[in-house]
Specification:
The structure is a single chain. With 265 residues, the protein is an alpha/beta fold. The chain has a single domain, classed as Uracil-DNA Glycosylase, subunit E (3-Layer(aba) Sandwich), CATH 3.40.470. It contains ten helices and seven strands. It has a five-stranded mixed beta sheet with strand order 4-3-5-7-6, sandwiched between helices. A two-stranded antiparallel ribbon has the order 1-2. A hairpin with a 2-residue loop joins strand 6 and strand 7. The protein starts with a helix and ends in an 8-residue tail after the last helix. The structure holds iron/sulfur cluster. The site of iron/sulfur cluster (SF4) has 15 residues, from helix 3 and helix 6.
């Protein structure tokens, strides 16, 4: 798709966001006819002046046909693809740029009911370009299934789009560098609920210094979206005893979403 085409579609989307739902199509042009000569009016005889209001004459100018606007989801998908392309070329964090194999943008449908947000890609994600595909990702898939959902139904991403070397915790500057991309991504994906996985993701999304133990177990808000924080699946792999607390968090989320809790009546 050409740039001009893309820009035009984005412009249409902006119009639609402003409340414009239809655009008129101008009537076809016709060859100009010879100018009509109109005689200068002469004084009317008094008897010719009507005493009642004239009957309105119908104006039969052609009504332009309405053209439906472009599908808003399609426009958002295009904008998201453009954002992913921008992210793929990003070099704001010199060390991450120099050591990454590729950026890991995110995966899943637009307008999902739920979006999971992790911290940053790990080694497997960096290699494959997809979020949560390693051992922690497999556990996340099990968690999603246990919640009565399918992985393809949810959107999955990280707050940072590049892997920190040796999986170190990203610096506050790196988090700040990538924040703009994350905000725009969520603006385009528009999930109904967010679930932050782990302390770094939770602190990044909520801009909070609190620890995960203080953030989990209650709802927060990000751009009007209800947010629940829980443990990162990688942490659950290291300490399986935390799985019950994680499940308690997710049951709270399911209740808030109005979904049934599998295994409970
Ligand atoms: S982490 Fe984000 S801001 Fe930093 S280089 Fe990667 S894409 Fe750019």
């Amino acid at each position: 798709m050409s740039d001009v085409h893309t820009q035009l579609r984005l412009h249409l989307f902006a119009l639609q966001a402003a409340g414009v739902e239809f655009l008129p199509v101008p009537p076809p042009r016709t060859a100009p006819s010879a100018p009509r000569v109109v005689a200068a009016p002469t004084a009317l005889p008094t008897a010719a002046i009507p005493t009642t209001a004239p009957t309105p004459v119908s104006v039969s100018a052609p009504v332009p046909p309405a053209v439906p606007m472009v599908d808003p989801l399609e426009i958002r998908r295009i904008a998201l693809d453009q954002l992913a392309t921008t992210v793929a070329a990003c070099a704001r964090c010199p060390e991450l740029y120099a050591t990454r194999t590729q950026t890991v943008f995110g995966a899943g449908p637009l307008a999902p009911e739920l979006c999971f947000v992790g911290e940053a890609p790990g080694a497997d994600e960096d290699r494959l370009g997809q979020p949560f595909v390693g051992a922690a990702g497999q556990l996340l898939t099990k968690i999603i299934t246990a919640m009565g959902m399918k992985r393809e139904e949810v959107y999955i991403c990280n707050t940072l789009k590049c892997r920190p070397p040796m999986n170190r915790t990203p610096s506050s500057q790196e988090c700040a560098n990538c924040r703009e991309f994350f905000d725009r991504q969520l603006e385009l994906v528009r999930p109904r609920f967010l679930c932050c996985l782990g302390a770094v993701a939770a602190q990044n999304v909520l801009q909070s210094p609190l620890r995960i133990g203080q953030l989990r177990g209650r709802f927060h808000e990000y751009q009007g979206i209800p947010v629940l924080c829980t443990f990162h699946p990688a942490y659950l792999l290291r300490d399986p005893s935390k799985k019950k607390e994680c499940w308690d968090d997710l049951k709270m989320l399911l209740r808030k979403m109005g979904r049934p809790i599998p295994g409970e009546k």
